Amino acid sequence: MDIADKAEGIIRIALAEDLGPEGDITTSAVCKPDDVGKGQLVCGEPCTVAGQPVVARVFALAGPGASYRQLVKDGDSAAAGQALGEVEGPLLAVLSGERTALNFLCHLSGIATLTARLVVMASPHGVKIMDTRKTMPGLRILEKYAVSAGGGTNHRVGLYDGVIIKDNHIIATGGLPVAVRRARNSLGDRFPLEVEASTLVEVRQAVDCGADIIMLDNMEPGQVEQAVAIIGGRANVEVSGGVNPDNIGSYLRLGIDFISLGFITHSAPSVDISLRLAE
Fold it and tell me: Among the options 8, 76, 86, 99, which is catalytic?
């Protein structure tokens, strides 16, 4: 099952939101029912592309007879002015699907572009760039797909497929060792056990409890360096919180394994892409 199949429900909701009960009343009014056309989706700036199968599905669902042919694959780079794909068919279907297709493609390509930029910075140091659960409700499957298209690594998809003991779990159970012990007793080795640590004391506790991954939460580079020394290779090290494109270089040389960043999904700028009809 490809990403368009997985996201078809989201695509249908997006089209219904735009078309409402009466459809594209402007195009219906100014174009004849049998008018057909052809156009290109053109990138206005350099980017890493993501969302092409979604665009194809949008046009397929927007009306009978419309088809889309991608010219650049997801995960590939595109230059400013480059055509990403061609759409043709009845103008009512093409123009009815235009904005929905562009909304998906611009947003997902923005995520992929930002992710790719960070991956280029991190890869020489053996550090993986990861996403988080800070995604727009309903769009997580697509936004994490875009991270993958940009060369990033998906963290857990939801609360059901990964264990992370966070600050509120520690508070709720009365301490980090208690929370870890309960998780081990309940889940065994079904999932790697990750523990969020915001102090060096918690780092030591997490190591002593046998955590598989230790997430260093909102630590400055100096603290991260101390934490890595404490961990001493006994667990994988993830850095999260406070890292951005301007300061990421300060973390990459510290011997960590992962950096997880919520802003690559919730704050990535959209890419400038437009539909140009052939005259």
Answer: 99
Q: Sorting pLDDT into bands at 50, 70 and 90, what band is 1? A: confident
For residue 255, the enclosing domain spans 119-266
The CA distances from residue 54 to 14, 106, 124, 135, 142, in Å, are: 11, 12, 32, 18, 9
Give rounded-to-5 percent helix, strand, coil for the chain: 45, 20, 35
**CATH code of the domain in which 19 resides:** 3.90.1170.20
Catalytic residue among 24, 74, 196, 202: 196
Alpha carbon distances (Å) from 150 to 77, 146, 191: 9, 6, 26
Give 197-242 pLDDT, tens digit per residue. Answer: 999 999 999 999 999 999 999 999 999 999 999 999 999 999 999 8
Catalytic member of 76, 86, 133, 166: 166
Identify whether residues 52 and 128 lie together within a single domain.
no
Nearest to 3 by CA among 166, 187, 144: 144
Q: Is the domain of 180 the same as that of 200? A: yes
Residue 279 has pLDDT above 90, yes or no: no
pLDDT at 124 over 90: yes
| Residue 202: active-site member | no
Do 92 and 167 fall into the same domain? no
How do residues 148-207 score in pLDDT, each as one tens digit? 999 999 999 999 999 999 999 999 999 999 999 999 999 999 999 999 999 999 999 999
Q: What is the pTM of this model?
A: 0.96
Residue 65 backbone class (left: φ over 0; alpha: ψ -120 to 50; beta: rest): left
Same-domain check for residues 21 and 153:
no
Is residue 24 annotated as a catalytic residue, yes or no?
A: no
Active site residue 196: yes
5 has catalytic annotation: no
Instruction: Say yes or no: 77 and 129 in one domain.
Output: no
Domain co-membership, 249 together with 216: yes
